[in-house]
Write a structure and sequence with these properties.
Number of helices: 4
Order of helices and strands: HHHH
Distance between the termini: 9 Å
Number of strands: 0
Structural class: mainly alpha
Length: 78
Amino acid sequence: MDVQEKVFASFKEAFDVDDTIDRSLLVYRELPEWNSIGHMTLVAALETEFDAMLEADDILAMSSFDKAVEIMSKYHSH
């Protein structure tokens, strides 16, 4: 599974979105479920999916699906 698919799997787990959603709509505070509490749920899902501990700067910078893919690329080992 590539980085984009692993990140999307985490979004699906955190926000219960389906496969047909336009990923460009996954933006912090624009997706109703992606509030401050939802953000921490997403971080936990990403840490589990990537078996990694995210740095605080990365958690704060994660503002969209595309940004999450960019950030998680550095945690992807293969």
